[in-house]
Amino acid sequence: xxxxxxxxxxxxxxxxxxxxxxxxRAQTTEISFYYPVAVGGAIAKSIDGxxxxxxxxxxGIKVTPIYAGTxxxxxxxxxxxxxxxxxxxxxxxxxxxxxxxxxxxxxxxIDNFVKTADDRAWLNSFYPAFMMNSRxxxxxxxxxxxxxxxxxxxxxxxxxxxxxxxxxxxQTWADLKTTATKLTKKDASxxxxxxxxQIPSSGFPYWLFxxxxxTNGAILANEAGTQVKFDDPKVIEALQYWVDLGKAGIHPxxxxxxxxxxxxxxxxxxxxxxxxxxxxxxxxNNAKFDFGVAMIPGNTRKxxxxxxxxxxxxxxATPAQQEAAxxxxxxxxxxxxxxxxxxxxGYVAVSEAAYGTDTLRKYGRDFPAALVARDxxxxxxxxxxxxxxxxxxxxxxxGLQAALTGTKTPAQAMQDAQREADRILRxxx
Length: 429
Known about the structure:
Blueprint: H1 2-18, E1 29-35, H2 42-57, E2 61-67, H3 71-83, E3 90-94, H4 98-103, E4 107-108, H5 117-123, H6 128-131, E5 135-136, E6 139-140, E7 143-155, H7 156-161, H8 173-183, E8 185-186, E9 192-198, H9 205-215, H10 233-247, H11 261-266, E10 270-276, H12 280-286, E11 291-294, E12 306-314, H13 319-332, H14 335-345, H15 352-355, H16 358-366, H17 372-376, H18 389-404, H19 410-425
Parallel strand pairs: 1-2, 1-3, 9-10
Antiparallel strand pairs: 3-12, 4-12, 5-6, 7-10, 7-11, 7-12, 8-9
Helix pairs in contact: 2-14, 18-19
């Protein structure tokens, strides 16, 4: 009887198959994932590794990382693809692009996918400082991934040489000026061979400038991204301080390149540099001397802007793709993965739980410099971001460079930048 039943079952299956009723194989959901680096390299290797591990654990989902260039290039490519109807399913873009992505109707709130208690716990686990650039209007639009703050790196050997305590980096603006003066070296002809301090002003001038405005108690934009305060006396005072470091001959004159600043540090052309904590692994691997990492020296307070990239989910992806992207984003920001990413790159792990993992606890014990950016989060503010972010930021950057090259006074530069920003933001008020 059993055998007869089995035979008739086989026959029924064969008929069903011939009529096209056979049970369909589980379909693979494909996710294209734009990531902001130009080519391969160590970071791309990490991302490829994460994608492979995720696919192993989730065989129904195929993740394809697409290395799309700089943050700026990645945003342009993602928005162009969105307008032509073939956007990436997910992309890591600057957290400050949030208003632009909302205005372009390009992304969906992450809250749409948060359904279980576990999802909610995960979304609430990120450091509050990182969520300042991830939420607006009561919704979450991005998930922190490669996030950073600006920190100060200093050469401990050059400190010793100058008679300074290598374990006491400058704490205040006044300290910074005094320390940088002692660390500046000139040759017989009076040419500077080693600068005391270097704050880059190409690439992300507004971001590095926020290390000075924040520590002087000024906030550059309101939370809604509709108003800026470039002409605030505290902002002008912060820019004057930056200009004065150059005038004192302890900081390179004019515009300082973002990209070559770490190299100048490795080559001992500069004793202290401001740059992202995302450069920490680079410095650890390439500095052939004992170095320290410190919080940004304060004036009226401590602090730094946060920075870096968030995951976003694109609106024109299919519901299945969006759900798969959410699954990937949740997986790649879990404590163990976030801890690994932080060690691989130097970026700040995005949650307290990541720092509670055995791997990151041990790493922090062996390499305390890795914890400075995390500790600075308690004093951090949102990275500068507004509606029409590219244009408003350009107005500020142009003003900063005009002051640093001496074509305008700090007051004039910031008043002109304020007028231009007000003009651009008029429709959002």
